[in-house]
Design a protein that fits this description.
- The protein has three domains: about 240 residues, no CATH class; about 40 residues, no CATH class; about 120 residues, no CATH class.
- The protein has twelve helices and 18 strands.
- The strands form five sheets. It has a six-stranded mixed sheet with strand order 11-14-15-16-18-17. Strands 1-6-5-10-2 form a five-stranded mixed sheet.
- About 0% of the residues have low confidence.
- It is of the alpha+beta class.
Length: about 425
């Protein structure tokens, strides 16, 4: 496997414009790639406020080839291309992305198998994401479906199987062989998840020690009474031939794809059967917002029902109400995370000015990652009703010895952010 790059997100990559991976994926929108079994984190394009179906991994227009606003790992079986955060040091693995993932997924992997001296492989990243996908799927309850069951007893409740009955019950001893369809929690999906858990526990047990993950594992193990490690390949084949398609179980569809790749230790993806391209695509703007929430614990706004909502109109019922979603509120100050170097002085400014007005706040700010700055910068005072705009630059370490050193440095930046008083 030849490793290309790495390259950075939202950057020109003319040197790779003719590479088969880039040419195959250029101008392919993410909704197509999601259908082709690429893994997209978080699990749905439609569930992201930062990505949409018109976003791409690469664009090729007017003779220019660029990466877009995603990071991840792509491979065609011959070459592997890593797209890293533009705020990471390009000569190293993307420690910034790894650390943010570690933080929001509640892992402590420094000096472990995915720690300081180890480069995170494609397979490592699959395993790394498994507990998150498992928890999301189980939020819909343990998956159950109709399965065929064979019985040989006196409580007939299905179709009698004559051949099996003759083979097993002659001379007649009061039992009848029959088959029935039952709604069961022990099915191809839960068995697939169980096999994945057993594999990960042998190789990466430390990833499963979080209490939420332990509860998820207990839920799966309690229903998979038919589990046998000798049935792994049969279970994999069943799931490959019968993917989850119901829209209600979208989370289980993503978990199913992930488990198949982990168990096969190979990949499925976009392209011809001869040169299949596979990949893990990560919405890094979503990661950045989730990371800041984890670090600060600030009041979080968003469309999911467990997050806060800001009403646009006063004294208006839900039928005509409009909602707005600043990322955070701290001390009555709206805060928006922006995964970009340069703010849009029209849209970004207008957005934050709206939040300041709706919250009757005296100021509002942006939080942006930075390679060389740290701290607050005043952008200006708003005319009319007033209010101050500021930007807080969050310095991502660039000079470090190893991953341990990177973690020590970024924790200092985190402490400075948490200690910040906006007034």
């Amino acid at each position: 496997m030849i490793k290309l790059g790495p390259v950075k997100d939202n950057s020109p990559i003319e040197e790779l414009s003719d590479h088969p991976i880039v040419k195959s994926l250029a101008n392919q929108d993410l909704s197509v790639l999601e259908e082709e079994k690429f893994l997209i984190f978080p699990e749905q394009v439609s569930g992201s406020v930062d990505l949409n179906s018109d976003n791409f991994i690469f664009t090729q227009r007017n003779g220019t080839t660029r990466t877009c606003n995603v990071v991840g790992v792509l491979s065609d079986g011959h070459d592997e291309l890593r797209i890293c955060s533009r705020f990471s040091k390009i000569t190293e693995e993307d420690y910034f992305l790894r650390y943010m993932l570690q933080k929001i997924l509640n892992y402590n992997v420094v000096n472990k198998k995915l720690g300081a001296s180890s480069e995170m492989s494609y397979y490592d990243l699959l395993v790394f994401l498994f507990p998150y996908y498992l928890k999301k799927a189980l939020s819909k309850g343990v998956y159950k479906e109709y399965i065929n069951k064979e019985y040989d007893d006196s409580n007939i409740k299905g179709s009698i199987e004559i051949a099996r009955h003759i083979r097993n019950n002659v001379p007649y001893l009061g039992k009848v062989a029959y088959r029935t369809r039952e709604f069961s929690y022990d099915n191809k999906i839960t068995e697939l998840v169980r096999h994945t858990i057993e594999k990960i526990q042998l190789e990466y047990e430390f990833l499963l020690l979080n209490e939420d993950t332990k509860n998820s594992i207990r839920s799966i193990k309690s229903v998979t009474n038919d589990y046998s490690r000798f049935n792994r390949q049969r279970v994999i084949r069943q799931n490959i031939s019968s993917p989850v398609k119901h829209s209600y179980f979208t989370e289980y569809s993503a978990l199913q794809r992930l488990c198949i790749q982990i168990l096969n230790e190979d990949k499925t993806g976009f392209g011809s059967d001869e040169d299949k391209i596979h990949g893990i695509i990560i919405d890094v703007a979503w990661i950045w917002e989730a990371y800041i929430w984890k670090v600060t614990g600030w009041k979080h706004y968003g469309k999911p029902s467990d997050l806060e909502t800001l009403n646009f109109f006063d004294n208006l019922g839900s039928d005509g109400q409009q909602h707005r979603y600043p990322d955070f509120e701290f001390d009555e100050t709206p805060i928006d995370t922006k995964y970009k170097r340069h703010l849009d002085k029209r849209n970004d400014y207008n957005q934050l000015a709206t939040y300041i007005h709706l919250m009757s706040s005296s100021k509002g700010g942006f939080i942006q990652p930075s390679q060389d700055e740290n701290g607050c910068q005043k952008l200006g005072d708003i005319a009319g009703f007033g209010g101050e705009l500021f930007s807080y630059k969050f310095k991502v370490p660039q000079e470090y010895v190893d991953y341990d050193d990177f973690v020590k440095q970024i924790k200092i930046t985190e402490d400075e952010l948490k200690a910040l008083n906006f007034y």
